[in-house]
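Blackboard transcription, Thursday session:
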Amino acid sequence: MKKIIVAVVILSTFLSHAAVAEWSGNVAVELRGFLQQGAWPGQGDGGVSVSAQPEFRHQWDDGNFGVTFIPFARLDSMDDERSHADIREFEFLWVKDDWELHVGISKVFWGVTETQHLVDIINQTDVLEDLDREDKLGQPMLRITRTNGNGGIDLFLMPWFRERAFPGIDGRFRPPLVIDKDLSVYESDDEEHHFDWSIRWNQSIDNLDFAISWFQGTSREPLLLLAGDRLAPFYFQLKQAGLELQYTGEAWLWKLEAVHRETTAKNYDAFVGGFEYTFVGINESAADIGVLLEYNYDSRDHLALTVFENDIFAGMRLALNDPQSTELLAGVMYDLDFNSKSFRLEASRRLGESYKLGVEAHLFWDVDPLDPMYAFRKDDFVQITLARYF
Amino acid sequence: MKKHVALFLAVLLSTGAAIAETAQQKGLRIATEADVRDSGWGDTTADMVMTLRNRTGKTSSRIIRSKTLEGRSDGDKALSLFDTPADVKGTAMLTFSHGLKPDDQWLYLPALKRVKRISSKNKSGPFMGSEFAFEDLGSQEIEKYSYKYLGEEPCGKGWKCHKIERIPAYKYSGYTKQIAWIDTKEMRPVKIDFYDRKKRKLKTLTWKGYREYIGRYWRANEMFMQNHQTGKSTRLQWKNYKFKTGLSSRDFNKNSLARQR
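(Written on the board underneath:)
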């Protein structure tokens, strides 16, 4: 609490500076409907959800100093646990020549592939938001960046871990038993105060963009332990070496993400790689169509917690390149071990100047009982989001 | 820049033989002179309002700020920062242009905080849904075209213009040719007609409201693109042009796109 007060005082001091200070952000209404009754007792069939994400940014001294504050909140009619709030970012920035210092709650993204974000480990995933796992919780950190060439080295020092939040009894995308955040256990005696650190070097040379990274600390993804009629998240210690690679040709993008992970129990490797080929100006129109193919592998095989242990994703991306920025991404994930299939579609279009309509659908079929995806097999859904940006 | 100077010297030496100059040589000479006159500006920043108008007259607008660093041994580096529409606010596009070689391009998507290297094959594709293609807004290096001098014509406001045919030499252009009018006095582009892959007239770009900056560099405060085939148009209104602001390659780093304002 004291930290927050100090931060607010600092923030209001900076607000008095005459420089670029601005509010932006969005509010959104989301309608979600599940096509089948839930697999597990208590699960709802859909509902209405509203969210707000105001964003405050202020920079001064020619961008050499900056403050960012981005709170987020959602109210959900179906699942109380999905009604949640978070501080996505509350960060102070200082830039000096080739050096950057970020202090506070921050968010970073690592990676190149589309099916999953394997290497991306700094921020905890906000699994309540979306199945695509692209929403993240704010991570307290000190980040020191040294830029060079067209890239740089980032050092992340993270004194405080963010626990994952899970759907409640009414929620979908959960195992038969509810995961209880209050039962969390840690491998480290320091629990959520374990000091995590990471370093990443990224660079671009000609047609190649690459990054190598090292992470040492608490795994963002917990194991789930049986605790009576509930599941307890177990946060183990993890060392991860990561590689990101993209070759950009004229119409081809070749992508690879790979990790080697070491834990007390076992070591394992995983990768996701593939390509995206774009056909531009379809039928003399402005539209582009991209074809994507990615293969996902995890050496833990059937024991992997992930649904991506030996899976192929084949998809298509359509961009109309019209004034409304109409886009669509659709594809099928096929599990080569279990023959399970899932279909995913995401589309969006701007309405007027400040509204955006989004449609999302996820369907599952032929899911094998041994596939980790089995728990979600009845969670086919269609979702419509209308967001007002300001 | 070096190659421009070399080319300029070559052109100077060849003017001795001006009598024998072909239309191609004259076209190249004029393009080179225009390029040389507009070099040495170092870096520049400007604010742009882009207004899209469809057939029925309905408009929508985008506000984009741009920063450009002049290339010395290679093409320019450019950063475009999007302020509106509100849903793309904070999006940044970083482009390293390289003459005939395809440009390198990165897009920063603020919602995910993701930096994406994108393929630049799509030169003929529309920029932000406008009537401007990426290739219309890219840095105009001399080697990107072959030239042919077509003659001299009056081009409004009592100006006289060189009329030059330009044929794109780079791959994946949406045009078979362009006819450019460049004023004879200050070598400023005044108008370009664009011809599509079927050699039909596709678009006309006109520049208006030229102003001279730091005693040397002319910039228009308006660029208007009319599409003749669809009836749609796009107007770019430029303001707050600044030169030699002290930008360096440090300001054009993909690792720093998130903090660019």
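Lecturer's comment: Chain A has one domain: 2-389.
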